[in-house]
Amino acid sequence: MTTPTTDAPAVREEVLEAVGLTKHFPVSRRLGSLLTRTRPTVHAVDDVHLTLRRGQVTALVGESGSGKSTVARLLAQLYPRTAGTVRLHGEPVTVRGGRPFRAYARRVQLIFQDPFASLNPVHTVRYHLTRALRIHGNAGRTAADLDAALAKLLERVSLTPAERYLDKFPHELSGGQRQRVAIARALGADPDVLLADEPVSMLDVSIRLGVLNLLRDLKERLHLAILYITHDIASARYFADETLVMYAGRLVEGGDSETVTQSPAHPYTRLLIDSAPDPDRITGDAVAAGRERGDGEPPSLIRPPAGCRFHPRCPAAMPRCTTDLPPRLEVGDRPDHWAACWLYDPATVAAAREVNR
Ligand code: SF4
């Protein structure tokens, strides 16, 4: 009999998986396109593969309009998919409203960017949390059970004592407290997965860290699988175990957060990191260097560029980048670090070595 080794890295349980996730939104036709048969579509998300694991935070990073929030809504089953599969605990799931949706939402909860818009201003914290507990069958049988469940939810998000917050309206809370209530409401379902769509981007900088620490604490204490959607790659390094980078509807790089943020492989990831605010870099030379790095506008997703979608901005683009879509290629520095970039094609790497010899 084989004795399991204790120093092997623990393989975390897969909870939610997306395979080939794709979403194209049809757009209304202009007069000029009425005679053509094809209806224009926005290629919001194309062929996204990702796995969320218990007790792990996966960051999905990219610019506005890159498709990150659409991925979260597809995983939450708020939009129908154009193609691809979503698996929950290994089982393919497609739900459209009603009881199946409620059963799915019990396992997979979405936290929105704007905590003020996601809470009803005419209802108290007690109302929001009670409703979540009742809908998902976690309110218990008696008033005492409900009170205990409410206190536990608020304690989990560090809003204590509960009596101080339960009868407050959203406008009586700070932005950070509102987001904590929104997180408590999501926890009312007792989910396995939290999909957090830019959960701190609308909060003051001074309280962002507190909310991220809370989510990390929940990951550890409740073994939640968390998808953390952000445009701030620096926060991904701090908060996430794994980081995936998205550009123009496609994933372009992935790996453990330390590697992706400290040794970025894809030219777009390098651009994202270089674009993070840093007063030391705001000089004329830096602006010129930025142009060389590939600063510019993301492409139209109605007619995305052929080949690599980053090629119109990429300072390293080669002829094949304009025609051939790069697959995920191993970068080779760490296990699981990959980039969808022809620079990591073994033939390109060998040719570059030959030139440098
Ligand atoms: Fe640049 Fe080509 Fe890599 Fe795309 S595939 S990021 S265009 S080098």
Automatic annotation (TrEMBL):
The lineage of its organism: Bacteria, Bacillati, Actinomycetota, Actinomycetes, Micromonosporales. Pfam families: ABC_tran (PF00005), oligo_HPY (PF08352). Signal peptide: none annotated. PROSITE patterns: ABC_TRANSPORTER_1, ABC_TRANSPORTER_2. Gene3D superfamilies: P-loop containing nucleotide triphosphate hydrolases (3.40.50.300). Keywords: ATP-binding, Nucleotide-binding, Transport. NCBIfam families: oligo_HPY. The keyword Cytoplasm does not apply. Residues 29-273 form the ABC transporter domain. GO terms for molecular function: ATP binding. This is ABC transporter ATP-binding protein. The keyword Coiled coil does not apply. SUPFAM superfamilies: P-loop containing nucleoside triphosphate hydrolases.
